[in-house]
Design a protein that fits this description.
The protein is an all-alpha fold. About 55% of the residues lie in helices and about 0% in strands. It is built from ten helices and no strands. α6 packs parallel to α8, α7 packs antiparallel against α8 and α7 crosses α10. The longest helix is centred in the C-terminal third of the chain and has 45 residues. The chain starts with a helix and ends in an 85-residue tail after the last helix.
């Protein structure tokens, strides 16, 4: 039974190794479709239009102030506790950890680094683009606004565009982008859109962002998701380079490993017969200071056989002496005749 179990385990191991996909020298990468190019161009135009509307202090800035004076967190204070928890779905740290755990498990199961590398590339692009826009425009948030009706640009703030909203679009959109089936991709796309929409409105409710910040955050996250196919060749090359580095490292460890010393087998000589064995030297008897004692089961004195013993009548016995009993092998003595 134990042998059969071990063979079954070995079969499972070999089957898993057989399922591991080979790394071809050239990886086919999906090209940017015309539909995606149109969506990317429209989203980029929307992004630039939002920036222009805020820079010129147009109607969008006036709408920002009107929403701020409305104070949604006071109008609907009953849901304040829920919004405080819901907005965490847009924070970089918790969401990245959750999504990375899931994609890491998928990478291990599929023996590929593409899910983790795609997540890393998207977060890197998010930090570069959104971070540069925040620092470049320097807009202050609603809680720190100085002049009523002003766009609050160039004052050293870091609120425009909304990082929470852009992070929600990218982090949850990665799950839909890496979905394995079209049905799962559709459902995950809808779920990520609703989640990112809710996160953006939650920041407006709490008063941490202007409404225009959220609009620009949605556009920034969507641009990164639409641009991911252009980054796929770099992701594929990075995966091949990492696997090649791992193989070289394993080969290096194999060369520097200590070579086992060959063990010379010991030939055992056949055991010889007792007559052919050399006689072992006899040990000299150790002299003892005491005389040897007689065995405890023997009576002291010379030991005689039972047939040679002379019967003795105990003293005070009423029985006459056994004169007729003589030792075996001795002729009995002649009895005297009566009267003579």
């Amino acid at each position: 039974m134990r042998t059969e179990r071990n063979l079954t385990r070995l079969d499972r191991v070999f089957a898993r190794l057989d399922r591991e996909p080979e790394r071809p020298a050239h990886i086919d990468v999906p090209k940017m479709s015309r539909h995606r190019v149109v969506l990317f161009s429209a989203t980029l135009a929307f992004y630039m239009a939002i920036v222009w509307a805020v820079v010129t202090s147009s109607w969008l800035v006036r709408l920002d102030w009107q929403v701020m004076f409305f104070r949604p967190y006071q109008q609907w204070s009953a849901i304040h506790w829920f919004v405080d928890y819901y907005v965490v779905l847009g924070q970089r740290g918790p969401t990245a950890v959750m999504v990375a755990a899931w994609l890491g498990w998928r990478s291990w199961r599929q023996h590929t680094l593409r899910p983790m590398l795609t997540l890393g590339a998207s977060l890197l692009m998010l930090n570069i683009t959104v971070g540069a826009a925040k620092l470049g425009m320097g807009r202050l948030g609603p809680h720190y606004a100085i002049t009523i009706g002003s766009n609050e640009m160039g004052l050293g703030g870091d609120i425009f565009p909304s990082g929470h909203t852009a992070n929600a679009v990218v982090t949850w959109g990665i799950l839909a982008y890496l979905a394995s089936t079209p049905r799962a991709r559709r459902w995950l796309s809808a779920a990520s859109a609703v989640t990112s929409l809710g996160v953006g409105l939650a920041t407006v409710y709490l008063g941490t962002h202007w409404l225009s910040d959220v609009l620009l955050g949605w556009a920034a996250g969507l641009l990164i998701m639409l641009a991911l196919p252009w980054v796929e060749p770099l992701i594929a090359r990075a995966e091949i380079a990492i696997f090649d580095l791992r193989d070289r490292w394993r080969e290096g460890r194999g060369r520097t490993a200590p070579v086992p010393v060959p063990v010379t087998p010991v030939v055992l000589k056949p055991r010889t017969a007792p007559a052919e064995e050399e006689a072992a030297p006899e040990r000299e008897p150790v002299a003892s200071g005491r005389s040897p004692r007689a065995p405890m089961h023997l009576a002291p004195g010379p030991h005689t056989a039972r047939s040679e013993r002379t019967p003795v009548t105990p003293a005070g016995s009423r029985r006459p002496p056994h004169s007729d009993r003589v030792p075996r092998g001795t002729a009995p003595a002649a009895r005297p005749l009566p009267g003579g």
